[in-house]
Amino acid sequence: MPTKLKVREIKEYFGLELINEEADLDRKITVSDLSRPGLVMAGFYTYYPSERIQILGKTELTFSDGLCSEIRRERMTHLCQEDTPCIIIAHNLPVPSELVDVAKERKIPILRTTISTTRFVSKLTNYLEGRLAPTKTIHGVLIDVYGVGVLIVGNSGIGKSETALELLKRGHRLVADDVVEITQTADNELIGTAPEIIRHLLEIRGVGIIDVMTLFGAGAVRLRKKLTLVIKLEMWNKDKSYERLGLDEEKIKIIDTELPVNTIPVRPGRNLAAIIEVAAMNYRLKSMGYNAAWELSSRLTDEMDMNEL
Amino acid sequence: MVKKLVKVNLKTGLHARPAALFVQEANKFSCDISIEKDEKVVNAKSIMGIMSLAINSGSEIYIITDGVDEEQAAERLAELVSQED
């Protein structure tokens, strides 16, 4: 689900000055890349990325000052395309009157900041990448177990929240119960957080809604956590074969990122919290290079080779 | 799969009590049920999910059902939220 951002939000977030009052601030920003259209100023129009926010700094504006009014108007006209979200002037520089005219006509907002171009570009890039990152809401519980971000999924009523409660009692930290908002950051990491309205709350059937932070203290909660492992709880099905060795790793795809998943069958008498703790620890061990299943497999190979001699 | 657009007419919208009632009703059906509002989709069988959307009176939501009793579920839940109490 692509997130959409309006020019208005950028204007408000960075406190930018709007030069042409009647411009349309509801224009959409669809890409996080920025453009410094120096070559457009010079009259080279091929590959002009018009869908990006255009930033005019000292270099671009000094160059355009050297042009005659007629040519400047032509270049500015080319700058303001149908899909150009807005034009931002850095350094609090004066805006060429030709640009104001064209932008007025096409209702493209011209915004101005007092910050220098390079600094503004890096601030804006950070902001855009965060805001335009793909997001998804997932039904599940996100909990930090020994520093591993574990997402517990499974059907309603299988006992996700109850398992989370048991994990909390064992000193682990809750991030989100029932609704996990997941954002995929630039370097393909999935970050999970809770919607603000239900942050730090847990619903336990028969008891009702409890506030984890008030009950267990600030040490029992986290605002956000990177997802590293998925635990899928499902009713024990005797016809289904569950992982016995751990040699093969099952994967699940969330947005565009793959995560390892352990399917845990639920049956009375199985302590899910202990199993999840062990799964998290085992995951850490594996990421440190030790895999018990491989170790067993190699011992078996050695033993069999010995017997052959 | 059934996707139904309904307007919430309950006076308090899906506030805590009506949300609990809604979830209770949703749990009577065996199909998967989700609610969509402003491109956000949550599980309708979870009270926290419904409340995280903060659905107020007059807002429009989609009820999405998928499974054996999808028709009845969509019908019943739509009826529940669209009634004026």
Pick out its properties.
heterodimer, A: alpha/beta, Udp-n-acetylmuramoylalanyl-d-glutamate--2,6- Diaminopimelate Ligase, Chain: A, domain 1, Rossmann fold, 2 domains, five-stranded mixed sheet, 26% strand, B: 85 residues, alpha+beta, Histidine-containing Protein, Chain: A
Structure report:
The complex is a heterodimer of chains A (309) and B (85). Chain A is of the alpha/beta class and 309 residues long. Chain A folds into two domains: 128 residues, 3-Layer(aba) Sandwich (Udp-n-acetylmuramoylalanyl-d-glutamate--2,6- Diaminopimelate Ligase, Chain: A, domain 1); 161 residues, 3-Layer(aba) Sandwich (Rossmann fold), CATH 3.40.50.300. Chain A is built from ten helices and 19 strands. In chain A, the strands form five sheets. Chain A has a six-stranded mixed β-sheet. A five-stranded mixed β-sheet of chain A has the order 2-7-6-5-4. The longest helix of chain A has 17 residues. Chain A starts with a strand and ends with a helix. The relative contact order of chain A is 0.11. The mean pLDDT of chain A is 91. Chain B has a four-stranded antiparallel β-sheet, with helices on one face. In chain B, strand 2 and strand 3 form a beta hairpin. Chain B is α+β, with helices and mostly antiparallel strands and 85 residues long. At the A-B interface, loops of A face strand 3 and helix 2 of B.
